[in-house]
Amino acid sequence: MPSIAVYNMDRQQVGEVQLSDEVFDVEVRESLIHQALRVQLANRRAGTVAVKNRSAVSGGGRKPFKQKGTGGARQGCSRAPQYPGGGVAFGPQPKTYNLSMNKKARTAALCSVLTYKLQTSNITVLDKIELEKISTKDFISFLKKFELNKSLIVTDDYNNNLMLSARNVPHIKMLKHDGLNIHDMLKYKHIIFTQGSVQSTEGVLQK
Q1: At the fourth CATH level, which superfamily is domain 3-45+98-205?
Q2: So what's the pLDDT on residue 34?
Q3: 160: which of 64, 72, 149, 152 lies 20 to 30 Å off by Cα?
Q4: Mapped to the 3 state alphabet, what secondary structure does 6-57 carry?
């Protein structure tokens, strides 16, 4: 069973927490990680792009000129694709990009990333993260003590002062444990957990 040190906000070690083998010590399955990331990004796509074809463009109801005798090619509508202002031929239409993945495979992918982050020493656990007031300056000062940048901070409950202090800091994202996802864990190099969020995350992924 792996373990990790627990720090306070002044970077003083205040204890140690035992981590679950089922979450932080599993086989890192790159194929599942890739699949979960692909599903998440595909499901974000709106798929609402559309253009007007010749039947949707207004105007052009009458034949632009007579069938014969002009010396030119016959034309039936001035809203055909070859005309300026005409409809688009074979343009994009609304579609769905949704993909699916079963729950067990998605959980295995999340555990794989958490295991990899632990193996590469990119997980930090704090006993708690609390700010007395809304202050971006205080939040940045806290981050500098740990010499971390581009970090995902996972908490076990909503902290208004912390959320508002961190929202304008570049390369930092705040999440509750129930919003943990493949894309954000891969995007940010470090993951900072509160001790409570570690236990909450284990509880969700061990079900």
Answers
A1: Ribosomal protein L4/L1 (3.40.1370.10)
A2: 97
A3: 149
A4: EECCCCCEEEEEECCHHHHCCCCCHHHHHHHHHHHHHHHCCCCCCCCCCCCC
Amino acid at 193: F
Structure tokens at 15: 């204890």
- Give yes or no for a contact between 152 and 190, defined as CB atoms under 8 angstroms apart: yes
pLDDT higher than 80, residue 207? no
Residue intervals of the chain classified under CATH 3.40.1370.10 are: 3-45+98-205
Q: How many CB atoms lie under 10 A from the CB of residue 205?
A: 20
Q: What is the pTM of this model?
A: 0.82
Written as six digits, the tokens of 148 are: 């971390």
User: What confidence tens digit (pLDDT) does each residue in 137-175 have?
Assistant: 999 999 999 888 889 999 988 889 999 999 989 999 999
In this prediction, residue 61 carries a pLDDT of 81
Please state, in angstroms and rounded to a whole number, the distance separating the CA atoms of residues 65 and 88: 22
